[in-house]
From TrEMBL:
Organism lineage: Eukaryota, Fungi, Dikarya, Ascomycota, Pezizomycotina
Region (Disordered): 396-418
Coiled-coil ranges from the UniProt annotation: 74-108, 135-190, 356-383
Keyword set includes Coiled coil: yes
Organism of provenance: Orbilia blumenaviensis
Protein name from the UniProt record: Uncharacterized protein
This protein's UniProt keywords: Coiled coil
Amino acid sequence: MLFPPSYAETLLIPHFQPHTCTYEPEPAPVIDIDALTFTEIAMADIRTRILEAADAHISLISQLSDLEHAPFTLEQQSTYLNDLKKTLSDLKTELEKLRKITSKERKDHQDLRDSFARRYAHKLTGRSEKFISKIEHEEREYLDALHNERAAEEKERYLEETIAETESRVNELTIQANQYTDLKEKSEQLYKKVFDGPTPEFPEEDQMEIAVQHAKDFYAEAQSRSNTDHEAEKLMFKAERTVARAVKFCDDALSASSWDVWGGGTVADMIERDNLSKAKATLSQAQMLLRQAIGLQDAIGPFDDVKIAGGHCADIFLDNPFSDYEFHKKVKETYVQMRLLHQKVQLELQAQRGRALDSKNNMEDAKSQLAAARAELDKVRREVFERVTGISCETGTPPAYDAMDSPPALGPGEITTA
């Protein structure tokens, strides 16, 4: 017979009631698995790209190092070649003069030496020694001229050989410089492929990318400003030339007006008004150029208006000394105003030339800063490659250009032979 459990037994027997269990385990800490995975993948991805590009990178660095001297040396040799060609051109001009002198001295010497009549005449007058001395003098002048000509011809041959050698060197350097440019482009493409996007493991690379972008923006702005100021300078130069022509027309009109006052008549009137008409049309062209220049550079100007003297056609036939004098004063005032405008345009042209030069210098500075930023970025990226691959990118110092490899050009004083 079964009896119900006692009170003590109820304390020993467990009650399995899952639906009433109050036990709750502590929650696990929340981990941003997605973000961590993205960072790890990004770091692993860039390292993978670096390792995959390591061989190509070393090859590019090695080739760039071998050709790094080419652009600078090409520029130097091209300048040297131009100097040689100019020296040769000057020497050829001088050689033509020397050949004419030699030809003249040869003819004088031969004529005197072969002149039987003159020799016989000196012998009859007892001046044979003087004649012989004169022949010797002409012979020395001829030999000196011949020596100078041959020395110049020797220099000409030397210059022509040197130019041929330098041209060959320039052609070789041009090929190398083009190869260097192509390699630089390939290097840029490789770096762009490897380091495209943020590189959190290499923050210095991201910082230099930002610096290069800022340098690019600054250079673009400086280049735009330089081009604008240069165009404004060209417009101001054209305007100055145009106003100068207008001043000339006004001056001619003033001369004709003075003539008219003193009785020049209808012809003087027609010349006067024709020049005033030309001055008005020319002034209109100048004003258009000035407006265009101001549109590019608002620091230019302002300019005062010029009122061109004018009258009725009937005045030509119905003039009198009083009306001629009154109109003469108007023409003179036009001339004065045009002169003042010309002076103002000249001053503004000089100022704009200064601004254009400053803009050009700023552009060159910005270009240098961009080149320095790019070089620093390349340096940082090479260091990143070295850290990841464990392979040094140092390939030694590139061959330096030795100016002694090329013969020196002749100086101006060496062209003319004594």
